[in-house]
Design goal:
The complex is a heterodimer of chains A (117) and B (118).
Chain A: E1 3-5, E2 10-14, E3 19-21, E4 24-26, E5 32-39, E6 46-52, E7 60-61, E8 64-69, E9 74-79, E10 88-96, E11 106-107, E12 111-116
Parallel strand pairs in A: 2-12
Antiparallel strand pairs in A: 1-4, 3-9, 5-6, 5-10, 7-8, 8-9, 10-11, 10-12
Chain B: E1 4-7, E2 10-13, E3 19-25, E4 31-38, E5 42-51, E6 54-57, E7 64-66, E8 76-78, E9 87-94, E10 108-109, E11 113-117
Parallel strand pairs in B: 2-11
Antiparallel strand pairs in B: 1-3, 3-8, 4-5, 4-9, 5-6, 7-8, 9-10, 9-11
Classes of the chains: A mainly beta (117), B mainly beta (118).
Chain lengths: 117, 118
């Protein structure tokens, strides 16, 4: 079974600084997808960024980027120029590649990010 | 309103009562999912559905029942609520037709329902 581990329950960063959230996972699959979801106080789950395992290039979405190390099964999220609106719970998630579209997301336990003004 | 909605947003009930959480999506997505979110566990899949009248168990299905008579609705029922079912419940939907299984075929989440069982 696949597992996703987030070892940092809480992190904090000064506004405008850079922070990195860690995630490791375990799978026997060779092709899969990894995601970072953001959950602000409103509870809405928002997809931040996604990475395809067969792509070596790290995904980037504006101030958000990932460091994907497939051999190490590591998938960290870097937030540059942190803003107050980035304060949220961040979840790392894994999904197998499937032709049927019904594969579940496996989530980590989350990292609560606080932005210090 | 377009999108995925859940009702109620908050619910307090008592042990032993039946509770139904509603989920409605307007995209005609074929796949729908129910997750529960608990501190220390992240989100865990309860049930999912590939289409109307097709449902399957997820990771933590015990104590829950689902049905899907219409594509747009996916209600979750707790037949006899227990305190351990106090949680935040999320519904999600996914397009099963466009690039099925591909990375841009993502799950869209509803706003969640906070359920408290006393």
């Amino acid at each position: 079974a696949q597992t996703v581990t987030q070892s940092q329950p809480e992190m904090s960063v000064q506004e405008a600084e850079t922070v990195t959230l860690s995630c490791t996972y375990d799978t026997s699959e060779s092709d899969y997808y990894l995601f970072w979801y953001k959950q602000p106080p409103s509870r809405q789950m928002i997809l931040v960024i996604r990475q395809e395992a067969y792509k070596q290039q790290n995904a980037t979405e504006n101030r958000f980027s990932v460091n994907f190390q497939k051999a190490a099964k590591s998938f960290s999220l870097k937030i540059s120029d942190s803003q107050l609106g980035d304060a949220a719970m961040y979840f790392c998630a894994y999904r197998r590649k499937s032709n049927f579209g019904n594969e579940k997301l496996t989530f980590g336990t989350g990292t609560r990010l606080t932005i210090i003004p | 309103d377009a999108g995925i909605t859940q009702s109620p947003r908050y619910k307090i009930t008592e042990t032993g009562r039946q509770v139904t959480l509603m989920c409605h999506q307007t995209w005609s997505h074929s796949y729908m999912f129910w997750y529960r979110q608990d501190l220390g566990h992240g989100l865990r899949l309860i049930y999912y559905s590939a289409a109307a009248d097709i449902t399957d168990k997820g990771e933590v299905p015990d104590g829950y029942v689902v049905s899907r008579s219409k594509t747009e609705n996916f209600p979750l029922t707790l037949e006899s609520a227990t305190r351990s079912q106090t949680s935040v419940y999320f519904c999600a939907s996914k397009d099963g037709l466009r690039l099925a299984g591909g990375p841009y075929n993502e799950q869209f989440f509803g706003p969640g329902t906070r359920l408290t069982v006393l």
